[in-house]
Amino acid sequence: MNQYDSVLEEAIYAFQMPAVVARVEQITGLRALEPDTMLYAGGISLMGPGHFLNPHIDNSHDRTRERYRVLNLLYYVSPQWSVDRVAT
């Protein structure tokens, strides 16, 4: 991660923060959520113009297959996006 802007690493680890996990619980109604601190099959993906992702099934478990996922969070960013460009 040290090859990229530190905000990328900060965004990844923000999902591990207790306050963020608690907010996700509040939004979803799910309880006792635990973040995947090992980031098994998680992280950053980069897609450029013309790229696409085929339909697929995300990993349903942690690295040791002792816990199973109930929720995957995706956070999309666009380099030139700004709040001023959002239609109201």
Characterization of this structure:
- This protein has 88 residues and is mainly α.
- It has one domain (1-88).
- 23% of the residues lie in helices and 0% in strands.
- The protein contains 2 helices and no strands.
Short summary:
This protein has two helices and no strands. The chain has helices at about 5-15, 20-30. The longest helix has 11 residues, at about 20-30.
Number of strands: 0
Rg over alpha carbons: 15 Å
Largest beta-sheet details: none
Q: Give the overall shape.
A: globular
Strand content: under 5%
Number of helices: 2
- Helix-strand sequence: HH
Write down the overall mean pLDDT.
85
Count of the separate structural domains = 1
Helix content: 10-25%
Cα end-to-end separation: 36 Å
Category by helix and strand content: mainly alpha
Q: Which runs of at least 5 residues are low in confidence (pLDDT < 50)? A: none
Give the secondary structure arrangement, pairings included.
Blueprint: H1 6-14, H2 18-28
Task: Tag the structure with descriptive keywords.
single chain, 88 residues, mainly alpha, 2 helices
